[in-house]
Structure formats: C-alpha cells, structure tokens
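User: Structure tokens for both sequences below?

Assistant:
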Amino acid sequence: MLGPMDEFPVHQLPQPIAWPGSSDRNFYDRSYFNAHDRTGDLFVITGIGYYPNLGVKDAFLMIRRGDEQTAVHLSDGIDGDRLNQNVVDYRVEVDEPLHRLRIVLDETEGIAADLTWNGLFDVVQEQRHVLRTGTRVTLDAQRFAQLGTWSGHLAIDGQEITVDPDTWIGSRDRSWGIRPVGESEPAGRPADPPFEGMWWLYVPMAFDDFSIVLIIQEEPSGFRSLNDCTRIWKDGRIEQLGWPRIKIHYRPGTRIPTGATIDATAGDGTPVRFDVESKLPVPLHVGGGYGGDADWTHGMWRGEKFTERLTYDMTDPAIVGRTGFGVIDHVGRALCTEGDRAPVEGWGLFEHGALGRHDPSGFADWLSVAD
C-alpha cells in the first residue's frame, strides 16, 4: 500500500529493502524533523504521518521557547496522493531526494513556517526495533536518519525569526511499521506478562567531519534489544562504533536527563567518548502527540481539516508532573574525544526516555525517580 515516495530511491539505499504494508490498525508511515540554533533558547519539532488503516493523516509543529511550549496540530482524512505530502495548511516538498526538502506551514493559529533542510551527511538505515506486550507485537518499526542544516523563517504571533543555516541544525528521520496510534483499542485480556516499560536513547549528532546516529533500546532488566551506533564520514564511509556503554545523568528526584556519557569504540579499537549535554528539553508527550500525551495522539480522527493550538506553561506544577515520564527531546551539544586527540564539538538531538522499570538505572517501577 505504501511506497518510498521519491524521498528514498531504492538504488541509493545501503541494502535492498522490502517496503512494508500491513493490515494491522496501527500501521503508520511518519516523517520527523527537528531544528535549533545551538543556543538552547529555542527548539522546533515537527512531523507528518499517514495512518492508512485508520483513514487519517496528521501533522504537528511544536516550538519551545524559554518556559513556553506551543504546539499546532493539523488532521484530515487520508488521500492516495503519497507524492504530495500535506495536511490542511502543512506540506513537505522534496526538492532533491536525500539532500534537500522544504517544510511549509501557512499561518495557522498564529504560527507559520517556511523551512528548507539541506543534508550534511549520507542517510543511515537504522536497525529494526521490536517491542512486545505479552504475546502481541506493539512496535515493529524501522527508519532512516540524517543530519542537516536549516534555512528560512518562522513566525510566532507576528514575531519573525530568521533561520540561518550557519547556525541552525537538526536531524530528521522517516519511519514506518507498527506502533500504537489512534483511538484506544478495546481492553481484551490483560497482557501476560504485563508490560513493565522500556529504556530508550537516540542521539543523532553532526560534527565537522562526521555525524553519528546512536539508537539503543533496553528491556526492564537492562537486556539490550537494539544496539546501533554508526559514524558517517563526509566522504561517505560508514563505521560501526561497537557496543556503547551509557551513563545517563538525571536531575535528582526526576527522570529528566541533564546529559549523558557515551563510551564507544572505533573500528581500530580506539576509545571514543561522547559527553552529551542538554541545552533545552522538549517532552514529546506534552503537545507532541507521542506516548502518554493527554492532549494529542497521532492518528486519531478529529474531523475534516482540523486545526488547533495548545500552549503550555512549562513551570506549571501540573505540566512539570507530566514531563519526566515520557520521551524527551533535547537540544543536544556533544564533545567527542577519540584516543589522545583534542575534543571536537557537535550539535544535534539528545532524545531519551526511561519508561517504567529499568534495573541498571535503579528505577524499580513506573514512579521511581533518580536519587
């Protein structure tokens, strides 16, 4: 049913791949983008998704500035024109596959955007990741990821923000498969064994000479079910960085990370350390529509040509209480130290979520927090 559109020509992929289709109600096909100017003052996250078995397509654009987080949501009935990605006044135009695309949001609820993304490094095909609840597969997905720069402008309630490619950077990914979307399903028999949680880390970062894409998923026991750490050089070489050892630095009394230490290994055995810090956190489940969001869920039918805007005070105790128990995207800065070479600086995304029990982190249940 779904194809690669013109964004991922099969001849350019690192290996042959069968584009999936499924009768599972939760089948999805989604593109995700983020953008920031490296200051930690502002973070933009946006995306568009198609849910063919639910008959829905939707998009969102979320902006975090200081203590305010604003999200615009758009939804409509799905159509069959997959080469023309659009939802109401939001659209994605692929100008040059794998190299350049444009995102446009015509003024909607006081927010507008015209952003062009240019790739800095080749695309990476990530490993397949699977999650089960009891005997049912609830996540079976795969994606591509890539780092690049942004240019254009944003408008927020009449304030114009220039997006300069000399400073604005971000990652994007395209994923598809099965994941929980749309309205809640009937309860049925409780899962046996019950779902106890998952631990997730996703770090795409751009440096001067290379980019990295790290994606790790662990079960509550700490068993690593997904381990993918790839370095992409400017000349197109791709290098695996082994089995990284991770230390997340949590703010005491929360599950909100302030950074991470990642110890990896180059192909020749040289130690490679990434010291990552958060410059600004954006919880995806507060207006972004991802797991646990009480206000917006991807794939849910909201009516024809639906739009809304939600704004959150991130100092509100009710919002603060939601923040730590979901996946958080951060404006990320990293210093990479390889062997005895001088550290080099990189920028991109630091995404982490510790949901439920995770023994290595000392989280015994869904509500426990860092010391």
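Moving on to the next sequence.
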Amino acid sequence: MSSQGFSYSPDTLRSMAQDILDHAASRGASACETDVSEGFGQSVTVRRGEVETIEYNRDKGVGVTVYVGRQRGYASTSDFSRAALHATVDAALSIARFTAPDEAAGLPEADLLARGEMDLDLHHPWPLPVEEAIELARRCEAAAFAVSPLVKNSEGASVSAHESHFVSANSLGFMGGYPSSRHYLSCSVIAGEGEAMQRDDWYSTHRNATDLAEPEVIGEYAARRALSRLKARKIPTCEVPVLFEAPLAASLIGNFVYAVSGGSLYRKSSFLLDSLETQVFSSQVHISERPHLRRGLASSPFDDDGVATRDREVVEAGVLKGYFLSTYSARKLGMANTGNAGGSHNLIVRPGKRDLVGLAALMGRGLLVTELLGQGVNYVTGDYSRGACGYWVEDGEIRYPVQEITIAGNLKAMLRGIVAVGSDVLVRGSKQVGSILVDRMTVAGA
C-alpha cells in the first residue's frame, strides 16, 4: 500500500476525544459521547488483463452525541481542527435543546462499560505496492481464464487493503479504541456465449493478508462455479427441501438476527416478538456469540456504546436465549443490555458432521441454492420470497443447474424446519455457519 500509515497517533485521537468531552461539559451538556476515527486503503481491479481501476482512500471523522437531561443531539464533522470540534459540540447541543425528551436516551450504566485493554490481534498492515496488487489481480483472473476456453469474459479481479483506528469515549470515564485491518481478494467471471452466458464469483477476506486464499485458487474456483451453471434449466413449481449453500446460510441467520434485534422488537415490527425462551429453530441449531476471537472479523472488546462484550449462548437446541440489545433498545424494552449496539459479534452456528455433499445426500431430492436475488423478506409476518439460482438434486446428487425460479416460505417455519447444519463453515463476516438444509419450501418455476 502506497500510503505511509495513519496520519494521527492514538494519543492524538484520545486528546481530541477528551477535548470534546470537556467542551461539552463546559457548555452545559449533562452527558456526552464521541467517536474519533481515521482510515485509509487501496483497491485495484484488473479486467481482461488490463488495469481498470486504482483507488486510494483516506478518510476521517468525528461523531458527537450530547445529552441535556433526556434530550439528545448528534452532529459530525470531518474537520479535526479544535475550532471545528468545538463547533460540532455546539451544533449537537443546539439540536438537543430542540428535541423532545426520551426516557430511554442517555449513556449506558457505568458498571457495564469496558475497562482496561484487550488485544484481539485485529490489526495487520499489508504494505502492498500497487504493482504487486496489480500482479495479484492478474494472476487471479488468468487462473480463471485458464480453466476452460468457455470462460469468455470477466467482470474483473480485485485486490483491496484497508486499515483504520478509532477512539470512543464518554463522560462516564470510558475511553477505548484500537486499530484494525481488513483485506480482500475477489474474482468474477462469465462463461458461455450468446444468450447462454452465466456468471459467478468467489472471494476471500481476512484481517491478515497471509490468511487470504491464493489468487489462483480464487480465480479457478470462480471459473468452475460459472461453468457449472451453463445449460441451466427451468423447473416446474414444486414443494421440496431446499439446501442453502454456506454464503447464503449466513444471510438466513442474518434474517433471524434482524428479527430479534432491539429496534425491530420495540417497534413491534418482527415476526419473533416475545420469543425469548421459546423454540425458534429446530433442536439441531445452536448459536453462540464469541466477541473476543483473535483476528475475528466481528471481534471487539466493547460495542458502539462502550459496553463490554461477552461470550454468550444465543440459541440452545433451537431455544432462543437472548436478544441483541443496545443501551437504548434495552431501556425501551425494559430488559438487560446485551452489548450489541452496532450489531452482533462473531455468531457461530455449531456445525454438523456432514459437508455440502453429505447434506445433498441427506436431502435426496430438492434444490441446492447458490445465489439469491432481490430482498423479498417481510419481517413483520416472516414471509420470505426471493429469486434464486442453483442446482437440482436427485438421488442425493446434483443433476443440472436451474435458473429463473423463486423460493418462498415463512421464516418462522423455515427456522424450525432446519434439518441439518453443514460442516463446510465459511468465515466472511460476523456470522460463521455451514450450509443449511431446510425441510420444505415452495419453489416457483415454469
């Protein structure tokens, strides 16, 4: 990466955060919290062997939330000058004085705040010269083209590296922050010709670039996925089991998380209202939250409110044991804070013993879904309807690719109808899960 690192030291960020808190107090705020951050990165895309884009980014920002009693105001700036920081505090105070009081507003309880340092090994700089990034992308794409002459075109291979650091602080004495990194290598190709073309992609992302898959492996796999989709057929409408490939299984778990998160619950816009200690999944499903995994893509010692994160069991044998609550949503619901302001932290769905091939064999006859299209999820009712592509499975084996279908069901029934979770765990974000087999859905086709 051509950039020479962070422009501001951690001590400078801490000094700015303290100055903001001090100014807010001097101007009459009863409480204040702030987040000061900086990040930079580089991204390179190669298409058909030629450099298509080279992008550099460097950004910084300050967010300030102030409270005047139970009135809340927020303002932000990208200007780190002392005058701009003070002006941002004043703007937040002006907003707060014109807002209605909210009994749930305010800082977390002091005893919930994170204390001390915790090194989770999240920062791994990748000093990648742009010439080397271009070469990595070319190797990735070339490997895809080398698989077959039917791989006719490319949407590009990309390499990106990103680093950031931040400091969060509030007027209860909390101040914490850390640096982190996230690096990425991807390839997307097109196979076939005329109206029979198909595309597919693959990528790898990690905190440490040494953990990324080799570029040739990613390119070759992306090509094989695209080739396997050629001669896709339509299928008649039917009701069959549906097997969600691991990347899509993560989105299914994401639907569940959204439904049991504080905002959905206190707004009463969730199909899982009042579901604590009830059977939400089949008994096959166990979900743990592990915020302190070293190098975890969603690891953090504290949430966006500064509340200490902790290990916990979210689902045990299908029974929901905990919601995802921030300071505000916990107060709105009259419940305990779970340290999830900003989202979940490394949700791990306990894997089963079967890989994707084993799950297909268990399914026998049905649909393996490898791509979802559209956003057809109604979180109030749980109704689920999305366009899909994938493969028809007969006698436990893939027979042919399918396209132009819609899969439909209700999330409440789908979660309870999970037959098995695969051992083919894929780690790409905050959810770690293998493929998921659902007992029955409607597949709308020809």
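User: Anything stand out in the second?

Assistant: The chain has a mean pLDDT of 95.
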